[in-house]
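Throughout our pipeline, every protein is held as a single compact record rather than as scattered files. Nothing more is needed to write down the fold, since each code stands for a local backbone conformation. For reference, a complete record is included directly beneath this paragraph.
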Amino acid sequence: MRTLRSAGRVAIGLVAAVAAAVVGWLLFVTVPTDAVELAGILLVLGTVLLGLRIGGNVARNVFPTYNVAEVGVEGPITRRGGGIPFSPPGAPGADEIVELVERADDDDNSEALLLRLNTPGGAVVPSDDIRLAAQRFDGPTIAYATDVCASGGYWIASGCDELWAREGSIVGSIGVRGSRMTASELLDKVGLEYEQLSAGEYKEAGSPFTELDPNERAYLQGIVDDYYEKFVETVAEGRELDGETVRETEAKVFLGEDAHALGLVDEIGTREDVEERLEELVDEEVSIREFEPELSVAEKLRGGAERVAYSIGAGFASRLVDADGEFDFRV
């Protein structure tokens, strides 16, 4: 099948080139003037090159070079994506990843989806958005954990048909955390007083400038518990596991082989093994195209600057709440 597609692309390209050459010769060379003939030859060459380019585009549409779409989820999962502190620069946000998966689903050439995961987790709802997009894909879906598939990453993987990992991959962390910074003592030391006008008993719950009272703590813990129950339910349903089995992991992370033994991972293998499995699923030789966001020149330049800054500051700190200091829920 792949040989047929390659032969078809070559044939279309040659036909386009010959047609362009004939048209160019008729238009530019047959004029009975020496100067015009010289210019005509140059124009013919240009026309041939243009014809090759057009023919190549047509050939790629008629005989596509791929049959599997790949989408990557890299770094912390957020709504807005790369460029935030401690996130890989240029990494697409959850909305962009959903758009890429949907674009792959709309592409008739994409018979299967390979979702590459290397993420420690992140925001709850964006993680679920990506999971749902993968679940809606019309065709086989394989999640492949490279280095880390934890928390929100595992939430996403539960929406795929299969989850593969390496022996040394970090997998699991089926749990939820809520975090906040407390700056009330700092305000006291510098002589500042925080005052906020609000309506509703729990509107200020989680503010970094006040201490949590027992009722506020219980209220916020209740939200964390509800998210956890939803996480367990989602994993149990998507991975066909018993809910109690999921809870017994106690939000621990496991190496790939241990995760496989627990049923958290379907198979252990390399990228080549995953591609062999995809060939079984689509019943033909696999060719993969990675779907990536389309960036403007300005965005590419900004991404380069962000990569430099990220390289300088990477590792300085790894876990902080959002910049606004509000109580932050993460998976």
The mean pLDDT is 79. The chain has two domains: 2-62, 68-178+248-330.
